[in-house]
Amino acid sequence: MSVPILMYHSVRERPPKRTAALAVTPGAFADQMALLAEEGFTPIPFGALREAHRHPRPIVITFDDGYADFHGHALPVLERHGFPATVFVTTGWLADAGPDAAGRPLDTMMAWSQVREAAAHGVEIGGHSHSHPQLDQLGDAALRDELTRNRGLLEDRAGVPVTTMAYPFGYSSARVRRAVRAAGYETACAVANRLADPRRLGDGSAARDDALAVPRLTVRMSTSLATFATIVDGRNVSLIFLRDRALTKGYAVLRRARYGVRKATGRV
């Protein structure tokens, strides 16, 4: 069984330039969700991925960062169709983070009350770090703080258990994944732009996929409804994301080398 896990960010009509590439318009999002309903897909939360085989045509709908337009534009559409979703929240970016504010939000963010409201409406709340750094470039202590602070704040302020997360920018490494597991997360999203196979989720051994590096499919402003229909149906995924996957592999090598240099020179 292969399951498409969709990765969204912002849902708004005129996103700022810094988020535009990974945004979709409210109209496009509504059309995409209507297509899923018409085609008989069953959206499930990311945390329920291992139980995907219990559902007809399972699919996972995820959102990164926690932008306010999720609450304003995406949530009403999801509720209209009765679709669950997962939102990975950057706690230091939230509009009323107060003394916990950290990092630089790219757009208007949800407030804690909206996070709690989303959770009350069946949205799974997951972690996305505290300040949205490149986790694979952090030293061990800073990495641990990003993960534990994010999860702790979400559980305390949103009042829900948090066992899933997504990596900021999609960047991780074996070291980061060990820290993620130690922080109490059970499953985590990468990007990778391929379909997920819940039957293969394991501990990252050679024979199985890592449950802390589950692949997702990028939905962006340039994704037409026809292309969306193709990827959720599992057709031509490798071809459609050929350039994305090549860039990801090349950049992973570069990032490992960069961290090695930073560690050797005492900058982490």
Molecular structure report:
The N and C termini lie far apart (41 Å). The strands form three sheets. Strands 1, 4, 5, 6, 7, 8, 9 and 12 form an eight-stranded parallel β-sheet that branches. This protein has a two-stranded parallel ribbon with strand order 2-3. It has a two-stranded parallel ribbon with strand order 10-11. Helix 3 links the parallel strand 5 (58-65) and strand 6. 43% of the residues are buried. The protein has helices at 17-20, 26-38, 68-81, 112-120, 140-158, 174-182, 225-232, 237-240, 242-264; strands at residues 5-8, 10-11, 23-24, 42-43, 58-65, 86-89, 124-127, 164-166, 187-192, 201-202, 209-210, 214-218. It has one domain (5-264): Glycoside hydrolase/deacetylase (TIM Barrel, Alpha-Beta Barrel), CATH 3.20.20. The longest helix has 23 residues, at 242-264. The protein is α/β, with parallel strands linked by helices. The mean pLDDT is 92.
How would you briefly describe this protein structure?
The model has no long low-confidence stretch (mean pLDDT 92). The protein contains nine helices and twelve strands.
Strand count, sense and barrel status of the largest sheet are: 8 strands, parallel
Indicate the percent of residues in helices: 25-40%
Cα shape: globular
Q: In terms of per-residue confidence, which ranges show pLDDT below 50 for 5 or more consecutive residues?
A: none
Counting DSSP H or I runs of 4 or more residues, the number of helices is 9
The number of distinct structural domains comes to: 1
* CATH-assigned homologous superfamily: Glycoside hydrolase/deacetylase
Strand content: 15-25%
Structural class: alpha/beta
Total strands: the figure is: 12
SSE ordering: EEHEHEEHEHEHEHEEEEHHH
CATH topology: TIM Barrel
CATH top-level class = Alpha Beta
Domain NodB homology: 57-268
GO molecular function, one term: hydrolase activity, acting on carbon-nitrogen (but not peptide) bonds
Protein name: Peptidoglycan/xylan/chitin deacetylase (PgdA/CDA1 family)
Keywords: Signal
